[in-house]
Amino acid sequence: MLTFQKDDLDALLEQKGDQLLFFYTPMCGGCAKAREMIELVLDAHPKVSIAEMDLNYIPEYARIFEIESVPALAAVKDGEIVAKEYEINNVIDALEFITKFA
């Protein structure tokens, strides 16, 4: 998984790029479990790229993207959030979202 900072996200949006994003916070136990499931999917799909971002460092984007909770997977197409998923309870949840938007 890639690690994005605010500048990376700014550039992605400015360039109207496509990217899967994983939003988390370090003290979130569900986030740690979701990361494990996402990494299992990425192991099976090595060409897929997901960038993770600590939501504590980008509160303005949490408001702009209307991120309601963590963990959250989001799909960016042409620099716009087109989908979000908060239910990452198992590998199937992660796989379905990732393969739909990768």
UniProtKB/TrEMBL annotation:
Pfam families, A to Z: Thioredoxin
Residue span, Thioredoxin domain: 3-90
CDD domains: TRX_family
Gene3D superfamilies linked: Glutaredoxin
Coiled-coil stretches: none
This protein's name: Thiol-disulfide oxidoreductase
UniProt organism field: Listeria floridensis FSL S10-1187
